[in-house]
Amino acid sequence: MAKKRPQTRATRPQLTDGEIPVVGAREPCPCGSGRRYKACHGRAAAHAVTELVHRPFEGLPGECDWVALRELVPAATVELPLKDGLPEDVPSVTLATVLPMAWPALRRDDGSVLLGLQNDTASGDISRDLADTLQRALTAPPGTPVQARRAPADGPRLQDLLDAEGTFEPVVHSGFEFWIPDTENATPEVTASLERANAAAIPTVKLAGVDAAYWCETPEKNHLRWVMPHPEEQLLDALARLHAAGRSSLGEGTRLVGSFRAHGLTVPVWDLPTGVGADDVEKPAAEFAERLAAALSSDAPLTAEERRARGGLTNRQVTLS
């Protein structure tokens, strides 16, 4: 009986990880391994999409203000300088807290770009998602919004596109009129979106004397929310020292009530009486910053009273992201 001829398989060209396209999870992996995509290269792609970047704005100028505009401020804009300069047909790039119709970005009729910050993102890296949206907006036809999509896992991040030496100077607005340079030509949908956004906006003011501190007015009381860059444990120790010593307030009737965690940073929050406006807390906030700097420099163990104060602060801590 003749021997069976050994079976041979046609060889497939080897692909690098960067050349392997995304396919359905149950389809054969395009790399030729014979396994399903989800059990092969799809595993790394899924991990890249879902992995949470703890501090997505780290390394950008104004990291604390990025966090504030993402989580706390209703209406604000910032001019963004690009690392390689603006394309000839793009007169400006502006970051906005929110855009009409919740668009991720908009290329205006004059070629300028608006990039929305408070949109939902498809991955765990807000910086990469925003960078992908920005790149697409720079080449979008004038007069069109940019739709959401899943950013490539190996795509650039904001830190790769923005000028690291540039400034980040938010301008806080009382409403969203910056959306529409020409109100007479706005569509009914955009006009209705503007009216809804203005009705929901909480009056907010950025303090001038300290970094990333925002006063806001609510029906029952006012608040100061201050995004701080210090390591969380060190900051909580310092706040506890001041709180135990009765030096954590911003004046009569004000009270440090707790903090948020947001995008890797800590945001202490003070309750303020209704009559206390942004101007009224400028000087107390500057004086508090000096007290905080001194408390941050201490490495002495917390006293029993300071530990109790710290426990109270951490029990009232809320994670936003």
From TrEMBL:
The keyword Nuclease does not apply. It comes from the Bacteria. Keywords: Isomerase. It holds the Pfam family DUF5926. This is Topoisomerase II. Residues 56-320 form the DUF5926 domain. One of its GO terms (molecular function) is isomerase activity. The keyword Isomerase applies.
